[in-house]
Amino acid sequence: MGAVDLTQFHKTFFEESLEGLDAMETALLALDSGSTDHELVHTIFRAAHSIKGGAATFGFADVAAFTHVAESLLEEVRSERRAVDGALIDLLLRSVDCLRAMLARSSSGQPAADAGSETLRGELLRLVSGEAAAAPGAAAPQAAAVDGWDIRFVALPHLLQTGNDPLRLFRELEQLGRLEVRRAFVLDSAPARLAELDPSQCHLGWELRLHGAIARGDVDAVFDWLDGDCELAIEALSGQARAAAAQPAPAAAPPAVAPASATAPAAPPAREATASATASAEASSIRVGIDKVDALINMMGELVITQSMLSDIGEHFDFTKLERLREGLAQLERNTRELQESVMRIRMLPIGSVFNRFPRLVRDLERKLGKQVRLELHGEHTELDKTVLEKIGDPLVHLVRNAIDHGLETPEKRRAAGKPDAGTLTLDAHHEGGNIIVRISDDGAGLNRAAIVGKAVERGLVQPGQQLSDEEVAELIFAPGFSTAAQATDLSGRGVGMDVVRRNVRDLGGSVGVKSEAGKGSVFTIALPLTLAIIDGLVTAVGEERYIVPLTSIVESLRLGAEAVRRIAGGGEVFQFRGDYLPLMRLHRAFACAGAITEVERGIVVVIEDDGRRVGLLVDDLLGQQQAVIKSLEKHYQRVQGVSGATILSDGSVALIVDVGGVVRLGQRSKAA
Questions:
Q1: Which of 111, 143, 277, 596 is disulfide-compatible with 588, CB 3.0–4.6 A?
Q2: Domain extents for the chain?
Q3: Do the beta carbons of residue 392 and residue 528 sit within 8 Å?
Q4: C-alpha torsion sign, points 400, 403, 408, 410
C-alpha cells in the first residue's frame, strides 16, 4: 500500500486551525486579569493543542514549534502555576495574530516562520523557562532537577479508531526533547496469523525515554486526548538511568516502530506548494446544518416524483390529460421554487462570523486611544449570503474604527458632557423587507457640522454661506478623499475613505447612509441584499429591449401627462411627485434603444429610490415580475454604466439589469445641471 498523500487534508487543516484561533481569541477576550475561569482556560488550551497536533501531523514544523511553546505557557495557567494578568493576555493575543499570519504563509507555500514569529517565540520561551519565578508556590525548583522521563505507552486495540496516531504522538514528544525508543513490542491481544490482522486495530506498545529538562505538564499534554485509549505510565528519569543514558546504547534489534524523525519526515516544500494552489478564499468550504441538507434531499425527492408524473403524461398524452398536465407543471414550478430557496439557504451564513472580529478590534483601539468602549452586538444570527458576508467585513471594520477614533470622546470629555466614561458602540443586524440592515451606532459627539462645511467650502464642494440641511452635510463625508482630520494618523479619521466604503457597499448592490446629532452620536446604516445571485425584478420594455428593475428599489409606477414634465436649465427634465420635483430619466436615451416610445404620456414612469434619492425612469411598458439569476457582464464583456448585470428570460432572450444607484446618481447630476 502506498503512502497516504496528506496534502489533500491541508485545506481542512487550515480552515479548522483558523476556527480554533477564533475560539482562542474569543476566550482570551473574555478572560479577565486574575481570572480562575477553568472553562475558558481549557478552551484556549485545547484549541492550541489541536493546532499543534495538526501542524505536526501535516509537516508544518514551524507552526507546531510555535504552538508548542504557547501551549506550555497555557499549561502553566491551566495548572494554576501562573496567574492570569493583562500582560499575559496581551502576549497570547499577539501569539494568535502571529499564528494566523504563519498559517497564511504556509497555505501559500511560503515558509511559516519569519523574524517576527521567531522573536515572539523567543519571548514565550523566556517566559516559560522562568516559571519558577512566576509560580505562586515553592514546588517549582523540584522540576528543574528532572533530566527526562521514562514513558511506557501501551495502545488499547481501539486507539486508531478514535483518530489518534502513535506516530504523531512521537513527533510531539520529539519537539520537547531527544526521544529514544527503548523497546517496541507486540501485545498478546494480537492475532497469531497475519491474515487475521484487522488494520483498524492496534496491538503495539512502546517503552520510551525522553531526554531533557522538561516539565511534567508538557509530557502529560501530549497524551491529553488519549484518556481511555491507552495504558500510560510516566516516571521521572532516575539518577542511575541518567548515568546509563550517558553510555553508548547497546546494539538492538530494530524496533517495530522507528523514532518519529525517521518514519514521518516533514512534508517537502513541493507538496506544500500543491496545497497552496487550492487554499484560496474563493474556494473555501461552507459548513451546512443537517436540517438544510435534509430539506434539500426532501425537495429533490418531490422533484423526482413530479418529473415521473410528467414523463408518464408525455408518453401517453391525449387532450383528456390536459388538466393533469397543467397541474403537473404548476407542481413543477412550486418544486423548482422551493428547491431554489433550499439551495440558496445553504449559502446563507450568520453575520456573527463578521461581528466576532470586533471585540478584539475594540479592545486594541481602547488601549491605543485611551478610551473606554462598551461594545453591544445584536442580531448575530441574522443570515446573509456567503459572498456578501465575505465582502462586507472591510467596510464594517472601517466604520467601527472611525466610530471609536473620531466618534466617541475620551473619558474626560465625556464626563464634562455629563456622559458616562465608557462610550457605547452598537452593531445591529436584522431583516427588513428583502434586505439585511446593519447599523453601526455610537453615543459620541456626532459629526462636526462646522468642520465638515468648512472643509467642503475649502474644497469647492459648496459655496460660502450656502444653507445645507443635516442630511446634505452628512452626505459630504462620502465625497472622495473628504476628511476633517487636522493631521494624518494610522487610524482613518471619520470621513477618510468613506467614499470607498460606499463604493464597496454599492458593489454588493447595497446602500449606506448616515444620521447624526451633535453631542448625541451617529448612526451609519448599511442595506444589503440577501444574496447576490438572484433578485426579484420588474421586467420593463424599452423599444425592442428588455430591462429589469430590482423590486426593492421601486417606489411606484405611474402615468404622466405631457404637461406634468418641465424642462430645466441644461436640458434636464423634472416632474412633481408627492410634493417634490424628481428628475426624469428616459432609458431609451441613456441606453440608445431604437424604436422606443418618446412621448411621456404614452409611456410609464417607474419611480426608483437609492439612499433616499429618487428618480423617475420612462419606459414603454411593464411586462411583469420575474426572479432574475444575475450574470456578470464584466466577466464576458466589460463594465457598462447604469447596468449591474444581465439575466436570461424565459424565452431565451437576454435582459439587462438596471444599476439603480448609478441611474439615480446620473439623474441627480442632470437635475443639478
A1: 596
A2: 6-137, 145-263, 290-346, 350-529, 534-672
A3: yes
A4: positive
The answer, yes or no, to whether residue 534 has pLDDT greater than 90, is no
Contact in structure between 664 and 609 (CB atoms under 8 Å)? yes
Q: Is the pLDDT of residue 669 over 80?
A: no
Identify which of 373, 352, 377, 351 has the alpha carbon closest to the alpha carbon of residue 362.
373
- Binned at pLDDT 50, 70 and 90, residue 31 comes out as confident
DSSP string, 138-184: S-HHHHHT--EEEEEEEE-TTGGGGT--HHHHHHHHHTTSEEEEEEE
The answer to whether residue 246 scores a pLDDT higher than 80 is no
For 400-425, the pLDDT digits (tens) are 998 998 889 999 999 999 999 999 99
Q: What 3-state class would DSSP assign to 234?
A: strand
- In this structure, whether the domain defined by 350-529 belongs to CATH 3.30.565.10 is answered with yes
SS3 annotation, 262-302: HHCCCCCHHHHHHHHCCCCHHHCCCCCCHHHHHHHHHHHHH
What is the C-alpha separation between 461 and 476, in angstroms, rounded? Answer: 8
Q: Does domain 534-672 have CATH number 3.10.20.30?
A: no
CATH class given for the domain over 145-263: alpha beta
**pLDDT at 182 (0 to 100):** 92
Exposed (0-12), middle (13-18) or buried (19+): which is 534, by Cβ within 10 Å?
Answer: middle
In whole angstroms, how large is the CA radius of gyration of the chain?
A: 33
**Alpha carbon 60 to chain centroid distance?**
24
Contacts of 482 (CB under 8 A, 6+ apart): 455, 456, 459, 461, 476, 495, 496, 498, 499
Q: Count the helices and strands in the chain (H runs, E runs).
A: 23, 22
And the C-alpha cell for 431? 431583516
Instruction: Compute the mean pLDDT over every residue in the chain, rounded to the nearest whole number.
Output: 80
Residue where the block lists cell 517576527: 116
Q: Does the predicted TM-score (pTM) go above 0.70? A: no
Same fold, 6-137 and 350-529: no
Q: What is the mean pLDDT of residues 66-84?
A: 87
- What lies within 8 Å, CB to CB, of 497 at 6+ separation is 398
Whether 435 and 529 have beta carbons less than 8 Å apart is answered as yes
Q: What residues contact 600, with CB distance under 8 A and at least 6 apart?
A: 560, 561, 562, 564, 565, 584, 618
Strand order in the sheet with 148-155: 178-186, 204-211, 148-155, 230-236
CATH code of the region 6-137: 1.20.120.160
List all residues 6 or more positions away from 522 whose beta carbon is below 8 Å from its beta carbon. Answer: 403, 407, 441, 442, 444, 446, 447, 514, 515, 516
Helix (H, G, I), strand (E, B) or coil at 524: strand
Cell of 234: 510516566
Residue found under cell 472611525: 402
* Of 465 and 51, the one with more pLDDT: 51
Among 600, 606, 605, which Cα is nearest to 565's? Answer: 600
Q: Which of 46-60, 247-261, 444-458, 468-482 has the lowest mean pLDDT?
A: 247-261
- pLDDT band, residue 668 (cuts 50/70/90): low
CB 142 within 8 A of CB 207: no
**pLDDT at residue number 547:** 92
